Amino acid sequence: MQPDHATEPLTILMMVAHPDDIDFGNGGSVATWTGEGHRVVYCLITDGDAGGFDEDVSRTDMATIRRDEQRAAGAILGVEEFHFLGWPDGRLYVTHELRRDLARVIRQVRPDRVVTQSPTRNLRSMYGSHPDHTAAGEAVMCAVYPDARNPFAHPELLAEEGLDAHTVSEVWISHMGEGADLYVDTTDAFERKVEALRAHKSQTAHMDDLRGRMWGWGRSQAKSAEFGPERTAEGYIVLDTR
Length: 242
Fold this sequence. Notes:
Keywords: Zinc. The chain is an alpha/beta fold. Helices cover about 40% and strands about 15% of the residues.
């Protein structure tokens, strides 16, 4: 349960199901990492076109809105690079084609670390077990191993696109409960996380106490990390995938 102490600049690739998933689960970590000089890249598998609350907004328009909101939120946290894959929101399954698309991004970005969602259902958390989230986590894990590192997997990526195989050194799985392997102290980045979430207006404008909710989540993880009072944290299960 030690904090993150990377000593050299890393390339960190965040791979999740929906716009706003990163900013809810990892926004404080992202702001901390970019502040330390790490390169952070976002990969959004869907455009979140099934989200929102305004029935007068078409699903095509919602996809555009959510991409724009994600770019604005990422900019607040210091992120400038985005990959939008455009898979259908609410209909995400682990397929060969999805694994190929994720492996393509990994080979393009060539990250040291991939951060993703849990591939397993948490029976005590409906939010954490959104089927798109678990599908994203499993597909990302498949793309990390074996797909992205195997030059004979998805051979068109090399033959047609010139994308050489790449081995990701570590995968961090977002973990919001007790028992994480590692916690990032996000206290100094907390307000930026909230600001980034407010940029997702189509998803958060109706929330009466967004800041309070995020403070509660962050405090619970800081307590698990034994960071002391008035601190916030985000937890991860860390896998060596070299």
